[in-house]
Design a protein that fits this description.
CATH class of the largest domain: Alpha Beta
Number of domains: 3
Largest sheet: 5 strands, antiparallel
CATH superfamily of the largest domain: Histidine kinase-like ATPase, C-terminal domain
Number of helices: 10
Order of helices and strands: HEEHHHHEEEHHEHEEHEEHEE
Mean pLDDT: 82
Structural class: alpha+beta
CATH architecture of the largest domain: 2-Layer Sandwich
Length: 405
């Protein structure tokens, strides 16, 4: 038998211990809720957008710090108020109308509008309003998020104005280009008749060249070459203008590319007599194309290569089939090469660029433009591979027989 000394035994109170545990748990949960709410408030206040929550009566239940600053009050002072108490009559009516539409239709609305802040600043806001519900699906009110897009709107307006100015300048440049092309076409066309008369006279003089001194024969030959070159330039200008204005009608037939390349060299005559110009063929290469146009393309590319190749250099014309079955013609020279940034420019009208240290212009800038137009009319491609100091390879491809136009 157990005995107790010093008085009565201690009283046991299990119910009291349970009550203390529950109280501790409540205290712990309350502290956790407070901490979570504080964190949520910190997050909401850190968002620069204006965030507010109203009940179905239009009374503010929650807002973040940017919204309270917008209306000129602290966050606690906003709670319990309506739009009529925070904004002027017109603003309050506008906001109430949007709220009613969201709550009646229980739908999300997005709108843009200019609004006045408490500090007098007017800003453009992109606003999203949506209804929100409790866990049972009961409508509780609406949440509104407004983003200040004033700066974005200003930038968009500046870009729009800049676009309009660029478009006006572009249209002006197009008119100037049209005027330039018209004047060029008219002048060059008028040059053709007297030029042909001059060439005819020089050719007749050449027939009696044996009556002239050796020095005069040399001068005559040079004059005739220059006149023929000028005639080619005139033809090139007229051809480019005609192709751009009216397109081009192709006489498509199957031809041997090697024979066309050799025919192109023949048209250059004395220009290649004393130069190292060769044609290399890799197999039997056939393609369907307009022979006259392609002959002129090759002649232009070879003539261009010769102008930028030193006397002891060489120019080679290679014809082969590529892996896709297309006929590929390459004109390789050992000149100074072309900087990479000019590889596209030289195929544009009047596009000129100096090559290497020679800094010689590419004639009128229309020869390669004509080549590009002629090749693309066949559905082909044209380009250049070149590095400064390592020469250039101008190439073009014509579609295989089955895909030719």
């Amino acid at each position: 038998m157990t005995s107790f000394t010093g008085g009565k035994p201690p009283e046991l109170n299990p119910a009291g211990s349970l009550s203390e545990d529950v109280q501790e748990q409540k205290t712990s949960l309350s502290a956790d809720v407070i901490l979570r709410r504080a964190r949520l408030r910190a997050v909401i206040d850190a968002i620069p957008d204006l965030i507010s929550v109203k009940d179905c009566e239009g009374v503010y239940q929650l807002c973040n710090q940017p919204f309270s600053e917008y209306v000129g009050l602290d966050a606690r002072s906003v709670l319990g108020k309506t739009d009529v108490e925070l904004f002027d009559e017109g603003e309050a009516l506008q906001r109430s109308a949007l709220d009613d539409e969201v709550l009646r239709g229980e739908k999300t609305l997005r709108s843009e509008g200019w609004h006045d802040a408490a500090d007098g600043r007017t800003a453009l806001f992109d606003t999203l309003e949506a209804p929100f519900y409790n866990y049972e699906g009961e409508l509780l009110g609406l949440i509104k998020i407004s983003r200040d897009i004033t700066e974005r709107h200003r930038i968009a307006e500046e870009l729009r104005d800049a676009h309009d100015q660029l478009r006006e300048q572009y249209e002006h440049l197009k008119k100037l280009e049209t005027l330039r092309d018209s004047l060029t076409h008219m002048i060059v066309h008028d040059l053709r008749s007297p030029l042909m008369g001059m060439i005819t006279s020089l050719q007749m003089m050449e027939m009696d060249a044996d009556t002239l001194s050796e020095e005069h024969q040399t001068d005559l030959a040079g004059a005739l070459r220059s006149a023929l070159r000028l005639s080619q330039m005139v033809t090139g200008v007229l051809d480019v203008s005609t192709i751009e204005a009216e397109g081009i009608e192709l006489d498509i037939r199957v031809h041997q590319c090697v024979e066309t390349a050799r025919a192109a060299l023949d048209t250059l005559g004395g220009m290649i007599t004393e130069r190292d110009v060769t044609v290399e063929a890799e197999g039997d290469v056939q393609a369907a194309y307009d022979e006259e146009l392609v002959t002129r393309v090759i002649a232009n590319l070879v003539s261009n290569a010769l102008r930028f190749t030193p006397e002891d250099g060489s120019v080679k014309v290679a014809v082969r089939k590529d892996e896709n079955g297309s006929a590929r013609v390459e004109v390789r020279d050992t000149g100074d090469g072309i900087p990479a940034e000019y590889h596209e420019l030289i195929f544009e009208k009047f596009g000129q660029v100096g090559r290497g240290e020679r800094s010689v212009k590419v004639s009128t800038g229309l020869g390669l433009a004509f080549c590009k137009l002629a090749v693309e009319a066949h559905g082909g491609r044209i380009g250049v591979v070149s590095q400064v100091g390592e020469g250039s390879t101008f190439w073009f491809e014509l579609p295989d027989l089955e895909s030719s136009p």
